[in-house]
Amino acid sequence: MSINKIILLGNVGKDPDVRYLDNGVSVARFSLATTERGYTLSNGTVVPERAEWHNVVAWRGLAELAEKYIHKGSQLYVEGKITYRTWEDKNGQTRYTTEIVAENIELLGRRQQNQAEGNNPAQTDSGSADPAANPAYTSAPMVEPSQSNPADDADDLPF
Description:
This protein is mostly beta strands. The protein has one domain: CATH 2.40.50.140. Helix content is 10%, strand content 40%. It has a 5-stranded mixed beta barrel.
């Protein structure tokens, strides 16, 4: 068994580049920065903050959501898989890239901030910005447990 799963929480570096292929399929590409905070060691050595940049690729419905709702500076939660590609550029040189193919994207941050930017905080891999359209992200109303007598439930035990 093997697993290729990555989870990132970071900030978008620039607005997504969204393109539509000849067959109508959309693809969005954007960079996402994850940052490790700086700190000071006990001997006084200062370790500076360090950012890692990730190339994220989103297809179809996620690409369309990225086009509408993701902007430079947006804080995102991204689930996906890591892929490696090679290609030959126009000069004949072999190029290599590492990408994160998004399977789920969720906008984070304060709700007021997202609404002010026109963002919906519940972006999913379903391709819909409406959380009600994806049952996995809808929540049932909270119901208080009944205050029953435990002795009354004794007859319901399966053994």
